């Protein structure tokens, strides 16, 4: 295949008016025996330098698949990206050849994973795994990489980094392991950091520490941060804006304050209502009814309609577009006004 | 911070139990899988014992004259009149059916047996391991082709297969025996390696390494291989013993080594018929063979444990 011009990698630093990272109408499907599973159906979001975007949704909503598509670590096949663009400073990553993409992976866009124990190689010391980033991508010597590993462990606030650099992953607690994972991810000063449920496997106090660490690192380096989570409570203090995903689509885009004050999509509202609150002690906790949609057999119309308390006839037949309901806000609900009003009242 | 306490307590307990704190490595050194494994190995009695035994056997194979002044290839050292004698000051292990010194023959037999065992093991581990690694990692058509090929090999009865291969060469010597054994056994190493690679490949740390920019060779050799190699090491060491035994079997059938070559297998085969009258000529090479196999299996166990940080 010969293309007239191969897109070139954008330089580091400020790049015109383009957002740092823009996902545009992305579709991802997986080939299975039962047919194509449409995991992502036209997702769009944008991230600017120094900004934190929280991508919210339950299991199977397509939030992690979108992230893996950005990283280029989907197994293709069975995965396929029939449509869409992922622009990194204006360059469509999906059109880049593999060797150019691997230049971006880890160096310009990095990712951390949910379970840091299984995401760290059990047979290597944490120091050698952090140092590997420098050895592989920068050609740093082993000894210098070792020093840099200690510096990074200090930077992610691991106490006694010097003594612990030669320890193995299983000798660390969950929170410390996640810090090591973060140290590896920020080693080469990436411009975008994607955190896929970084705190799900941790207990609540440690969750707060890790979120605080991520927020600090983002402030220090002006990188864009994408936080993928299913826990609204975790992102409230850290995120600037939120994209709520359901059934492979974005159903609400909003600034974090707006959505907490009054969600404009029934699913976002359901998520907010199902956070346990101290002042509702003794009452039954709200739960969204029903099950996440079957991606092989999506409901007609609005995919949330079988679970939606605001459902009308139109929802079964007609899929709602992403209505623009404010300068920084969208909702994919025919009855967003009612939802907004209901939230206020 | 609350999450820093737990691991230190755990480490303290571990060091305390094994009493290793005093001899712990210097904190400023750069640790790696291999240096840590070596550091650990040097402290394992299992490793020290098996390594010492293997060194003695290798010296015996390389310089057998250091161990005995009798040259078993010199027909004059065999006295038919002294056949099947018991142990004595002159003949430590007694004499065999032809009146040759069993001790000298056992010492000189080490070379062929160990060369066949070790070389065949190395060849099968390298060929089978490497192909298994690549096939498991790449998958697809390559994997299918190799897997079907190994299935063909599994369908061949090994003794018949070896007979066939050796018949093609017409001569039985160390090289043809090794080749026949290696050709028939690499599929086993391949299957074991492929299976472990398939398990390891789907671990999160491989995905994480990919997401942080590791190239395919790096994923294969640094992230997957060290985690998948344990079972191949263990099986290879067990195979080593069976290669020495298989060489004996082929020699017994008359297609392997032939007199005047000396090997433990040949000696066992020759002594078999008169075993009840004179057990020595069979027992001593058999004991050496067992010790060799034991030493390599212990070495394999020690190396496998040292490569797993959780067992250190």
From TrEMBL, chain A:
It is found in: Cell membrane. Pfam families: ABC_tran, oligo_HPY. It is a peripheral membrane protein. Keywords: ATP-binding, Cell membrane, Membrane, Nucleotide-binding, Transport. Residues 21-272 form the ABC transporter domain. The keyword Transport applies. GO terms for biological process: peptide transport. Transmembrane segments: none annotated. GO terms for cellular component: plasma membrane. GO terms for molecular function: ATP binding; ATP hydrolysis activity. Belongs to the ABC transporter superfamily. This is Oligopeptide transport system ATP-binding protein. It comes from Streptosporangium subroseum.
Automatic annotation (TrEMBL), chain B:
The chain crosses the membrane at residues 46-67, 114-137, 149-169, 175-193, 228-257, 282-303. Its main location: membrane. It is a multi-pass membrane protein. CDD domains: TM_PBP2. GO terms for cellular component: plasma membrane. Residues 1-24 are annotated as: Disordered. The keyword Cell cycle does not apply. It is found in: Cell membrane. InterPro entries: BP-dependent_transpt_permease (IPR050366), MetI-like (IPR000515), MetI-like_sf (IPR035906), OppC_N (IPR025966). Residues 12-23 have a biased composition (Basic residues). Keywords: Cell membrane, Membrane, Transmembrane, Transmembrane helix, Transport. SUPFAM superfamilies: MetI-like. Residues 110-300 form the ABC transmembrane type-1 domain. One of its GO terms (biological process) is transmembrane transport. Belongs to the binding-protein-dependent transport system permease family. This is Oligopeptide transport system permease protein.
């Amino acid at each position: 295949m010969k293309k007239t011009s191969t897109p070139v990698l954008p330089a580091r630093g400020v790049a015109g008016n383009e957002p740092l990272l823009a996902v545009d109408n992305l579709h991802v499907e997986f080939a299975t025996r039962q047919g194509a599973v449409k995991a992502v159906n036209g997702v769009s979001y944008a991230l600017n330098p120094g900004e934190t975007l929280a991508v919210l949704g339950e299991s199977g909503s397509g939030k992690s698949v979108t992230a893996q598509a950005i990283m280029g670590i989907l197994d293709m096949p069975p995965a396929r990206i029939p449509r869409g663009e992922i622009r990194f400073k204006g360059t469509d990553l999906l059109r880049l050849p593999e060797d150019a993409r691997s230049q971006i992976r880890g160096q310009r866009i990095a990712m951390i994973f949910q379970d840091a124990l299984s995401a760290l190689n059990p047979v290597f010391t944490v120091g050698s795994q952090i140092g590997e980033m420098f050895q592989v991508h920068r050609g740093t010597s082993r000894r210098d990489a070792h020093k840099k590993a200690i510096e990074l462990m200090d930077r992610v606030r691991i106490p006694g980094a010097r003594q612990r650099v030669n320890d193995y992953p299983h000798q660390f607690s969950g929170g410390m392991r996640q810090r090591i994972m973060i140290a590896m991810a920020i080693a080469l000063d990436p411009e975008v950091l994607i955190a896929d449920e970084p705190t799900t496997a941790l207990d609540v106090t440690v969750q707060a520490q890790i979120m605080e660490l991520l927020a600090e690192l983002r402030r220090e380096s002006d990188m864009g941060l994408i936080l993928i989570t299913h826990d609204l409570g975790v992102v409230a203090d850290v995120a600037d804006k939120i994209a709520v995903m359901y059934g492979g689509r974005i159903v609400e885009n909003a600034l974090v304050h707006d959505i907490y004050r009054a969600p404009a999509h029934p699913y976002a509202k359901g998520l907010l209502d199902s956070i346990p609150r101290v002042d509702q002690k003794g009452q039954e906790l709200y739960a969204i009814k029903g099950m996440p949609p079957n991606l092989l057999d999506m409901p007609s119309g609005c995919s949330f309609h079988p679970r939606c308390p605001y459902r009308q006839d139109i929802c079964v037949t007609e899929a709602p577009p992403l209505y623009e309901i404010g300068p920084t806000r969208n909702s994919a609900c025919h009855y967003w006004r009612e939802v907004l009003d209901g939230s206020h009242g | 911070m609350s999450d820093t306490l737990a691991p230190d307590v755990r480490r303290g307990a571990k060091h305390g139990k094994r009493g290793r704190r005093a001899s712990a490595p210097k904190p400023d050194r750069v640790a790696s899988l291999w240096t840590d494994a070596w550091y650990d190995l040097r402290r394992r009695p299992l490793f020290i014992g098996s390594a010492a035994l293997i060194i003695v056997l290798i010296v015996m194979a390389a310089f057998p004259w250091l161990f005995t002044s009798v040259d078993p290839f010199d027909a004059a050292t065999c006295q038919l009149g002294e056949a099947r004698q018991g142990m004595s000051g002159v003949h430590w292990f007694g004499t065999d059916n032809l009146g040759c010194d069993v001790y000298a023959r056992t010492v000189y037999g080490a070379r062929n047996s160990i060369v066949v065992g070790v070389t065949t093991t190395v060849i099968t581990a390298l060929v089978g391991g490497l192909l298994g690694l690549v096939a498991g990692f790449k998958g697809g058509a390559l994997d299918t082709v190799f897997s079907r090929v190994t299935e063909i090999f599994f369908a061949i009865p090994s003794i018949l297969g070896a007979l066939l291969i050796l018949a093609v060469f017409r001569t039985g010597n160390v090289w043809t025996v090794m080749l026949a054994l290696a050709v028939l056994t690499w599929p086993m190493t391949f299957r074991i390696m492929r299976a472990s690679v398939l398990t390891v490949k789907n671990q999160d740390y491989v995905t994480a390494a990919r997401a942080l920019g590791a190239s395919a060779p790096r994923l294969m050799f640094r992230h997957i291989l060290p985690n998948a190699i344990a079972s191949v090491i263990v099986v290879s060491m067990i195979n080593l013993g069976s290669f020495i035994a298989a060489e004996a079997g082929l020699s017994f059938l008359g297609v392997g080594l032939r007199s005047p070559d000396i090997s433990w297998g040949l000696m066992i085969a020759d002594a078999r018929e008169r075993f009840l009258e004179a057990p020595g000529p069979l027992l001593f090479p058999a004991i050496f063979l067992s010790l060799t196999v034991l030493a390599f299996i212990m070495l394999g166990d020690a190396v496998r444990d040292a490569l797993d940080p959780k067992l250190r």
